[in-house]
TrEMBL record:
<feature type="transmembrane region" description="Helical">
    <location>
        <begin position="217"/>
        <end position="235"/>
    </location>
</feature>
<dbReference type="GO" id="GO:0022857">
    <property type="term" value="F:transmembrane transporter activity"/>
</dbReference>
<dbReference type="Pfam" id="PF07690">
    <property type="entry name" value="MFS_1"/>
</dbReference>
<feature type="transmembrane region" description="Helical">
    <location>
        <begin position="166"/>
        <end position="186"/>
    </location>
</feature>
<feature type="transmembrane region" description="Helical">
    <location>
        <begin position="281"/>
        <end position="301"/>
    </location>
</feature>
<dbReference type="InterPro" id="IPR020846">
    <property type="entry name" value="MFS_dom"/>
</dbReference>
<feature type="transmembrane region" description="Helical">
    <location>
        <begin position="367"/>
        <end position="386"/>
    </location>
</feature>
<protein>
    <submittedName>
        <fullName>MFS transporter</fullName>
    </submittedName>
</protein>
<feature type="domain" description="Major facilitator superfamily (MFS) profile">
    <location>
        <begin position="1"/>
        <end position="392"/>
    </location>
</feature>
<keyword id="KW-0812">Transmembrane</keyword>
<dbReference type="InterPro" id="IPR036259">
    <property type="entry name" value="MFS_trans_sf"/>
</dbReference>
<feature type="transmembrane region" description="Helical">
    <location>
        <begin position="339"/>
        <end position="361"/>
    </location>
</feature>
<feature type="transmembrane region" description="Helical">
    <location>
        <begin position="49"/>
        <end position="70"/>
    </location>
</feature>
<feature type="transmembrane region" description="Helical">
    <location>
        <begin position="247"/>
        <end position="269"/>
    </location>
</feature>
<dbReference type="InterPro" id="IPR011701">
    <property type="entry name" value="MFS"/>
</dbReference>
<keyword id="KW-0472">Membrane</keyword>
<feature type="transmembrane region" description="Helical">
    <location>
        <begin position="137"/>
        <end position="160"/>
    </location>
</feature>
């Protein structure tokens, strides 16, 4: 079912706004959750537990959300996710006001549940776009990240200063953003829940696990997420160890976020003109060039260039990988595959984030970049192999179809 252009433009604007809310909440979590944990934890070893709960709960719920979306549609799942972040932000605010570490952990765990539904926003756009514009619609939703990159960290700091109790305002801001996300989710169309997937069962993961196109999608999205997270988590720490100062550290994160979201429309054009394979090779090359700069220079500008190029390469791979995922199932029947892919990506990325500090201490900034290059080389090698398999599978299917038509005639 193809919606009229005016209605789709309204939906696209809603999705971009919802994506901005999502990434602003993520940005606030990344900026302040560790600091709040440090101020409330009685044992230093527990101070990162609230942030870890966000990641772990979000990863687990990603798998659950995919199955729920396949059964009920995207809108109820996104409404439920928004409700969890409203409650989570409120509980976190109460925890900060009452100096309760356990209550803060509960609040961040609820906020983590919302992490599971943010990835569906781009897929809602693809379901309501015309078949020839699915990839572009998916990419345009990513522009919500630009708004979040510009406002998220600044809003977190400003909100934290609005109340006498440190960080209380930031927790309240999370709840407010959750209310906005709730309104946006509640006013969206039901998407596939009452249309295709209500009458056509969602494709099961077992049906696609051996499909080369689906395998490429998982490889690209999970692999690029691992490299991006590893470099992003290591960069600020490496900057601090090198003594470049907080201004350079802030610039690194800012340009990294710009690289992650700004090229979305160009990534979609690249995908449309050259196809998924060449777009993926280009994205891999951009990340590799960023890591090569990291090997050559540990200066402030060198680290900033590495962070920016890794962000740009990730954007290209994210758009191209998502497009491959769309190609692996009929329109309207992919919610389970989407949930599985987002969950796998979140789990692998979380591993990179958790290991970043230890790897940086053990290997140094040069070692991090060498490791990233090794992962990128592995991704490229497997991508070539899976692409050859996909072409052979398509050729075999075409030959079998031709033989069937000939025998029937």
């Amino acid at each position: 079912m193809i919606k009229s252009p005016p209605r789709f433009r309204i939906l696209l604007a809603q999705l971009i706004a919802a994506q901005a809310c999502y990434y602003m909440i993520v940005s606030i979590d990344l900026t302040l959750t560790g600091l709040v944990g440090m101020s409330l934890a009685s044992v230093p070893a527990l101070m990162t537990l609230p942030l870890s709960l966000i990641v772990v709960i979000g990863t687990v719920c990603s798998f659950i959300a995919g199955h729920a979306a396949a059964r009920f549609g995207y809108r109820p799942v996104m409404v439920t996710g928004a409700l969890t972040v409203v409650v989570g932000g409120t509980v976190s605010a109460i925890a900060v006001a009452s100096h309760s570490f356990s209550l803060f952990c509960l609040g961040t765990a609820l906020t983590g549940g919302y992490r599971a539904v943010g990835g569906f926003l781009r897929f809602v756009a693809s379901e309501y776009a015309s078949p020839t514009k699915r990839e572009r619609a998916l990419a345009l939703v990513m522009y919500g990240g630009i708004i979040a990159a510009a406002l998220g960290p600044f809003a977190a700091i400003v909100a934290s200063r609005t109340a006498e109790q440190p960080y209380l305002g930031s927790c309240i801001l999370i709840a407010i953003l959750g209310i906005v996300a709730l309104v946006l989710a509640a006013t969206m169309p039901p998407a596939t829940g009452r249309n295709r997937e209500a009458h056509n069962c969602a494709i099961r993961i077992q049906e696609r696990i051996g499909n080369p196109t689906f395998q490429q999608a998982v490889l690209i999205l999970a692999g690029s997420g691992l490299v991006m997270t590893l470099v992003m988590a290591s960069g600020p720490l490496a900057n601090d160890h090198a003594g470049h100062g907080s201004a350079v550290g802030a610039a690194m994160i800012q340009w990294h976020l710009v690289g992650m979201f700004a090229p979305s429309a160009l990534s979609a054009l690249l995908l449309k003109k050259y196809g998924a394979f060449k777009a993926n090779v280009f994205g891999v090359s951009v990340i590799a060039s960023g890591c090569a700069i990291g090997l050559i220079s540990a200066s402030g500008w060198g680290m900033t260039a590495t962070m920016m190029l890794v962000g740009v390469g990730w954007n290209v791979l994210f758009v191209a990988g998502s497009a491959l995922l769309l190609q692996s199932y009929p329109q309207g029947r992919g919610a389970k595959l989407q949930g599985f892919t987002d969950g796998a990506t979140a789990a692998i990325s979380a591993g990179g984030s958790f290991a970043a500090a230890w790897l940086l201490q053990s290997l140094g900034w040069n070692g991090i970049n060498l490791l990233a290059l090794a992962v990128i080389a592995s991704i490229l090698t497997n991508l070539v192999w899976l692409s050859i398999r996909a072409r052979r599978a398509h050729a075999l299917a075409a030959a079998q179809s031709s033989s069937l038509v000939a025998s029937e005639s």
